[in-house]
Amino acid sequence: MTADLTFLVAGLSLLLAVVLPDLVSRWALSAPIVLVAVGLLLGLTPLPDGLPLDPQRNQATIEHVTELAVIVSLMGVGLALDRPLRWRDRSSWAAWSPTWRLLVVAMPLSIAAIALLGWGLGLAPAVAVLLGAVLAPTDPVLASDVQVAGPRTGDDSADEDDEVRFALTSEAGLNDGLAFPFVMAAVLLATEGPITGWWATWVAWYVVGKALVGLAVGVGVGWALARVAFRSPRRALRVAERGESLLAIAALVTAYGLAEVASGYGFLSVFACAMAFRSAERAHEYHAAMHEVVERLERLLTLFVLLVLGIALTRGLLGSLDWRGVVVAVALVALVRPVAGLVALSSWHRDERAPGGLSRVERLATAFFGVRGVGSIYYLAFASGRSEELDQNWLWSTVAFTIVLSVLVHGVLSAPLMRRVEAAREATIS
């Protein structure tokens, strides 16, 4: 009976994934808001207790499902970005200026602020650091409403980028992998003790080494697959000519698996793979076909996760939520991320007429839209499976509440605020 109901939930989520985006497009509602609400209603029905909804009893399942959702999303993000990143071109790096500032300044500030807030509320150091690391990254899965729509190819490939959407998309593509060192810092605090015993290893390997391995593997896999798909001397291997878009799935699984086997960061590898692949024949329509396949799979996985999250919320997931968890969630959405983003984007200000330049309105919008989502669930499941100290009901309740708050606030405000940003940009250009 439990297995049958699991299939029913999965089937319902797939059906909603097909019809929901068009149904809610005319209202100030995002698909994630509706999915969580439907899940909440389903959770109130007399479902059997055997459904795998308890995050602590089903930690491994939750970790792998959310892991898959994130890597699929990262592949889509990498393929969607039209702005190139050329290693030897300073102007190319400058055009990514908002991304670097959000990663180097905003994310560490957010981690530190939430960790200090948690510590001040009585959390153990390891738990406080984990809370900051879990909630700091902008989620590539749920931030789709404020990200670039997809790769522009053919005659449209020269269109100008929307700076806010580009900044949020590129940030989401990179910060999931860059949050991992701080998750590992929390795990090391909980398992190895004081930082004095492991800080050098953490910096050398978890901050630098694993990131370099992940990037190297991703670039290598993306470059090799692009060379085969577009330029192989054997026609049978030039899959771009016949539009075999399932190569995108093969690429993301290969890049992730190889990076993890090599002990690198798989999330960074997948994003780097997509970017490297996209750099080959940038205007080719094959990129759009690959992105469409990835986007469809991402939508199905995301809506399934959100539906299950909604069910879990009304069946005990928020049972340990207290005033401290509410304070953390509200502070993050309303204060920590916006302030950290503004500090980052206001530093080394770049001319708004240049690529990577943001006007005041655009800086405000970019700082505000730090959407939290599926990636946070994955990080918490990953850490809780490696330390009993980090496997706390309170952490699950707080992270779940923060995600719902972010889905609600950012989902309702995304459409009207982005329209205002775009109108301001057009007025400036004209």
TrEMBL record:
<feature type="domain" description="Cation/H+ exchanger transmembrane">
    <location>
        <begin position="15"/>
        <end position="419"/>
    </location>
</feature>
<dbReference type="InterPro" id="IPR006153">
    <property type="entry name" value="Cation/H_exchanger_TM"/>
</dbReference>
<dbReference type="GO" id="GO:0015297">
    <property type="term" value="F:antiporter activity"/>
</dbReference>
<keyword id="KW-1133">Transmembrane helix</keyword>
<dbReference type="GO" id="GO:0005886">
    <property type="term" value="C:plasma membrane"/>
</dbReference>
<feature type="transmembrane region" description="Helical">
    <location>
        <begin position="364"/>
        <end position="382"/>
    </location>
</feature>
<feature type="transmembrane region" description="Helical">
    <location>
        <begin position="297"/>
        <end position="317"/>
    </location>
</feature>
<protein>
    <submittedName>
        <fullName>Cation:proton antiporter</fullName>
    </submittedName>
</protein>
<feature type="transmembrane region" description="Helical">
    <location>
        <begin position="172"/>
        <end position="191"/>
    </location>
</feature>
<keyword id="KW-0406">Ion transport</keyword>
<feature type="transmembrane region" description="Helical">
    <location>
        <begin position="31"/>
        <end position="48"/>
    </location>
</feature>
<keyword id="KW-0050">Antiport</keyword>
<dbReference type="GO" id="GO:1902600">
    <property type="term" value="P:proton transmembrane transport"/>
</dbReference>
<feature type="transmembrane region" description="Helical">
    <location>
        <begin position="60"/>
        <end position="81"/>
    </location>
</feature>
<feature type="transmembrane region" description="Helical">
    <location>
        <begin position="394"/>
        <end position="415"/>
    </location>
</feature>
<feature type="transmembrane region" description="Helical">
    <location>
        <begin position="102"/>
        <end position="135"/>
    </location>
</feature>
<keyword id="KW-0812">Transmembrane</keyword>
<feature type="transmembrane region" description="Helical">
    <location>
        <begin position="203"/>
        <end position="226"/>
    </location>
</feature>
<feature type="transmembrane region" description="Helical">
    <location>
        <begin position="6"/>
        <end position="24"/>
    </location>
</feature>
<keyword id="KW-0472">Membrane</keyword>
<dbReference type="Pfam" id="PF00999">
    <property type="entry name" value="Na_H_Exchanger"/>
</dbReference>
<feature type="transmembrane region" description="Helical">
    <location>
        <begin position="246"/>
        <end position="277"/>
    </location>
</feature>
<feature type="transmembrane region" description="Helical">
    <location>
        <begin position="323"/>
        <end position="344"/>
    </location>
</feature>
<keyword id="KW-0813">Transport</keyword>
